[in-house]
Prior knowledge:
The structure is a homodimer.
Chain A lengths: L2 H13 L4 E8 L9 E2 L3 H10 L4 H9 L4 H9 L5 E4 L5 E2 L6 E6 H6 L1 H25 L3 E4 L8 H13 L4 E2 L2 H7 L9 H5 L4 H11 L5 E3 L5 H16 L7 E4 L4 H14 L6 E4 L5 H9 L6 E4 L1 H4 L9 E9 L5 E3 L14 E7 L5 E8 L6 E2 L2 E5 L2 E2 L6 H13 L16 E3 L1 H12 L7
Parallel strand pairs in A: 6-7, 6-11, 8-9, 9-10, 10-11, 15-19
Antiparallel strand pairs in A: 1-5, 1-12, 2-4, 3-5, 3-17, 12-13, 14-15, 14-16, 17-18
Amino acid sequence: xxxxxxxxxxxxxxxxxxxxxxxxxxxxxxxxxxxxxxxxxxxxxxxxxxxxxxxxxxxxxxxxxxxxxxxxxxxxxxxxxxxxxxxxxxxxxxxxxxxxxxxxxxxxxxxxxxxxxxxxxxxxxxxxxxxxxxxxxxxxxxxxxxxxxxxxxxxxxxxxxxxxxxxxxxxxxxxxxxxxxxxxxxxxxxxxxxxxxxxxxxxxxxxxxxxxxxxxxxxxxxxxxxxxxxxxxxxxxxxxxxxxxxxxxxxxxxxxxxxxxxxxxxxxxxxxxxxxxxxxxxxxxxxxxxxxxxxxxxxxxxxxxxxxxxxxxxxxxxxxxxxxxxxxxxxxxxxxxxxxxxxxxxxxxxxxxxxxxxxxxxxxxxxxxxxxxxxxxxxxxxxxxxxxxxxxxxxxxxxxxxxxxxxxxxxxxxxxxxxxxxxxxxxxxxxxxxxxxxxxxxx
Amino acid sequence: xxxxxxxxxxxxxxxxxxxxxxxxxxxxxxxxxxxxxxxxxxxxxxxxxxxxxxxxxxxxxxxxxxxxxxxxxxxxxxxxxxxxxxxxxxxxxxxxxxxxxxxxxxxxxxxxxxxxxxxxxxxxxxxxxxxxxxxxxxxxxxxxxxxxxxxxxxxxxxxxxxxxxxxxxxxxxxxxxxxxxxxxxxxxxxxxxxxxxxxxxxxxxxxxxxxxxxxxxxxxxxxxxxxxxxxxxxxxxxxxxxxxxxxxxxxxxxxxxxxxxxxxxxxxxxxxxxxxxxxxxxxxxxxxxxxxxxxxxxxxxxxxxxxxxxxxxxxxxxxxxxxxxxxxxxxxxxxxxxxxxxxxxxxxxxxxxxxxxxxxxxxxxxxxxxxxxxxxxxxxxxxxxxxxxxxxxxxxxxxxxxxxxxxxxxxxxxxxxxxxxxxxxxxxxxxxxxxxxxxxxxx
Lengths: 443, 443
């Protein structure tokens, strides 16, 4: 956590120990070219809250930083006992809408801030990026190849999971595959081809090792010769009853190469051999390749998806919405500084659908209202999970269902429409009332 | 690791078991606006190599993925026994220059690829970004506030470490502070101010908790009123012998606000109270603030540094440079595909200095040559560390020394000069020879 969570906590401990509060986690603005976001990262958040505690070693370190003994004794016993409401992972959501709402002791609800923001920022950013790539791929398979350029090992794991939620078919990341049950995929590197006395020899060696699932990388030397070698070796193995699974193109003009490869493969009666393409791909390049009609069956996507290159962070924030006064009564609160206004009170997000099942508009309202389908569900009660963690397959279905309820104008990769998010009558009234009685900043 | 490391390894195990190889890790191209990079991430790499092994659980999982029993038995016993040469962390380097060179069994040297790339990509990218921010700050203090928007928890730790290497003074990340011995810093959030009945009350509570190291956030309501409240409360505490450390500005026109704050503080005889600024800062904004003469003492930098927003990945690659033939003789090798040419042989990077100690040019050569100061040092011999891991303070000094040896034209934030990196005579000869005798891709 950030040090300021703990400095604030020590001050709360001494001055506002009994205070209860509600915080909202939401995204303030959409990144460029986005019209929607896909919520992910909740599982990490729930695991964190479930396991939050300070070890003796942690407390010793904090003592060295100058924290007081009274506060550290309290911290040593601290567990998270709050209530958490959240949208299900895989939900489509929009700026301003709380995706997680935490109510609990002011200290407990405050010190979890940094972790919650970190977890939701990464997974939501990547799930949203991956969802755009799936739109561009238009039904072709897409695989996560981002481990080497993801920002750290933790990121690589979360990227594989988030991309899978948004529709990817698998990952090259073996640990992610093992931890999350995502199909593992892999081919070969250029170094493999270079390690043998000839390209054909390297193909033979690989084919022999994986007779029924070889994907051969054909662009180490000349692509045309590479495809010829792949066809020759595949022919040798076909005679022994084994079929080449595919070839991979990793550089240059992928559309042109794919056309040549398809033609050459078909002429040699290898119609079922698939063509994989990779190499600095993102939704913009894939959209172009798809539009050109290039006969590419599957895409491998790495760097640009893994670090969400065109939007490497989200404007995700965690803001106080209400806090109890000295008498223990919850008072709604908000921040008025310019361009950074927050919404007060214990809120719910409601979604309204049209007759055909498409999302029409969302309404941010207060908990007691009911203008549409409420999106925030209670996931933690007094620090305990209300239900278990959801299987990844179910989260993937949520994402697919959410995306299919989104009209086309919101699924454009550029200059998409702005989805209407309104404030409910009661919330507007509350905001107006607070603005009128704006707490004087004086003493 | 990526699955393909293991598919290749199984094929090597069966076909090229005795092969030895050398791989180079380097960055192909500089990101936009960069003229140099700062190497970081080596410590992670060395820890990984030292501890590399497959658990029974890992092997069971790989068996389910279809790997052969012979290969898995071998994997269960596998440890890394290779030699590693590397530039010291904190070194300034340029595209094409190997920063890590690995020689060992082909299998061992191959399967570590994904981790090495991931580790060097993240830490080097951030150390380079942070170094630019230090240039912009021109002697003012800079602190890492990026935990909440870094891409995962692992990234947040590495960001704090890399930024510290490049000259940052501290981090808000308590775990990074504990693990790496980096000074921890922290102030308060807007929610703290909102949690009390008035801004002044919140300042009093915080001040009372930290009487000698309070930094008050003054922009929750009106900035002018916030500064007035800070001065009033600081006056109350000064009467009791305690001094306010600083105030923090977090939004709006920071230069204007800093001027107003400085004037108001000075008028109230608070000349020693520091002004901290934060809020979406990066080297470009800090350069502007510094140029405007804004009286800001220290900067807090988060999102844009933490995810290296304008260059969220490096073009870092790991390429085969030589491999033994069937007779056990090392043969230099290279990849010729268009725009992706690699350099063959066991290489060294040499740096040449001018009389005043500035870097003049670098020469990539073969190990036996000697045209300048060799930058790659042996850090691992047969899988064992040659020396221990270097203390972070020493790495920070390396970075400072390297940066001070870099002429101003290479330290510009935009349109910097292109530093000369040449190939040695012998390396050129080797490349020409290999190009002439380019291995035929045919069988």
